Amino acid sequence: MGDGPLCSKRVTDYLKANRGFLEHHVLEYVDAETLERWYVRRAQREKSIKPIADKVSEELSQKISISRWKVIRIDVHLAE
């Protein structure tokens, strides 16, 4: 089996489809220190992504609020 993107994709697809196999393999062959290091990396990555997601969500919320205001204003104007 060769290396490369196609091979990596097949392995990734297999692991996603077989979570039980992945869990068994990791628990059997990966030491606790490595698992902890992976968990810390993931937590740090999620922390760094969250502020960006919050900012985008806030900006989207503001845009939606302005859109709602325009709709309400049009409805009031039409009702007059």
Structure, explained:
- It contains three helices and no strands.
- It is mostly helical and 80 residues long.
- It has one domain (5-79).
- The chain is extended and about 45 Å long.
- The chain starts with a helix and ends with a helix.
Low-confidence stretches: none
Number of β-strand runs: 0
The largest β sheet comes out as: none
C-alpha-based Rg, rounded: 24 Å
Approximate helicity band: over 70%
State the order of secondary-structure elements, H for helix, E for strand. HHH
- Described by the principal axes of the CA atoms, the overall outline is extended
Total number of helices: 3
Count of discrete structural domains: 1
Estimated share of beta-strand residues? under 5%
User: End-to-end span in angstroms?
Assistant: 73 Å
Structural class, from secondary structure content?
mainly alpha
Question: Mean pLDDT score, rounded?
Answer: 77
Topology:
Blueprint: H1 5-17, H2 19-29, H3 32-79
Please tag this protein with its features.
3 helices; mainly alpha
What is this entry, summarized?
This protein has helices at residues 5-17, 19-29, 32-79. The chain has 80 residues and is mostly helical. It has one domain (5-79).
